[in-house]
Amino acid sequence: MPAPLKSHLPFLKWHLAIVGSFILCIADAGISFSVPSPSYFAEWDVKDTFGRAEEAIGNRIGDYTLTDQDGKGFQLKGLLDKPLVISFIYATCDYACPLITTHLRDAVKEAGDDFGKKFRIITISFAPDDTSDRMRSFGSNFIDSFENWKFATGDEETISMLARDVGLSYTKVDKVFQHLNFFTVVDTEGKVYKQIYGIDFKPKTVLESIDMAIEQKKLWVSFINIMDAIKAFCYTYDAKTGRYVPNSAMLLPVILGAIAQLFIVALLVYIFRRANQKNSNGLDRCRR
């Protein structure tokens, strides 16, 4: 081992010990904050659901028979001659599902005549007791015509397989469903092109994704995508208030993790600068 480096080993070990201790503290804090109760993850694993959603990108959607808001059967494949936005809801949801659907309606308004020409939307219920009439009632709150935006149901097996194709996981807890908040953009080849996460998004986000799907542009991970995913993680259903609220159990580990990474990077930069400075001072003394 070179003498200059050997002389600085105690210095480096001491600083690395600090880094290691800090990482362990952050990990311990993250674990304690991110696991609110054993039963929570027995029913619902948010990290798992996000992984499934991301892994579904590139999946080819199967050709399923669904029932629209008028009680008429149709083949999903018949909608795939242009990009298709697929959103999943349950009709009795009173916050996240209506909010996502409202933002999709805003995107439709912004698209104007391009809606129907460039893309369609289908909103599908994963609740077994949702009927065509209930879906029509839900959809009527957002649009006047169902020509290019269907509100559909299906049998449990069909919905389960379609949800698997797009990477959606959901589970029923008491009278509500827990699910990751996102919708899916499917391209003209019938493949999952992009997931858009969160309950609050701009029409531009939807329309740009549609244009990219038409042109088959390659997607890259972006800061916006990461922030959308974080927002999807950080909301959960509060049975007491009947609302989806910010979930500190998921938000705190994200913040702590970011702080930890910034601290570690800054500390490593400091360590190596100090080591180089001492090495330079040692060489200067040797020359004298």
Describe this structure in words.
The protein has 288 residues and is an alpha+beta fold. It has two domains: 3-34 and 250-287; 46-246, Glutaredoxin, CATH 3.40.30. Helices cover 52% and strands 17% of the residues. The protein contains eleven helices and eleven strands. The protein has helices at 3-7, 9-34, 38-43, 46-55, 96-111, 114-117, 132-139, 156-166, 203-215, 223-233, 248-287, and strands at residues 65-67, 73-75, 84-89, 120-125, 149-152, 170-173, 176-179, 182-186, 192-197, 235-238, 243-246. The strands form four sheets. It has a five-stranded mixed β-sheet, sandwiched between helices. Strand 6 and strand 7 (176-179) form a beta hairpin. Helix 2 runs antiparallel to helix 11 (248-287) and helix 5 crosses helix 9. The longest helix is centred in the C-terminal third of the chain and has 40 residues, at 248-287.
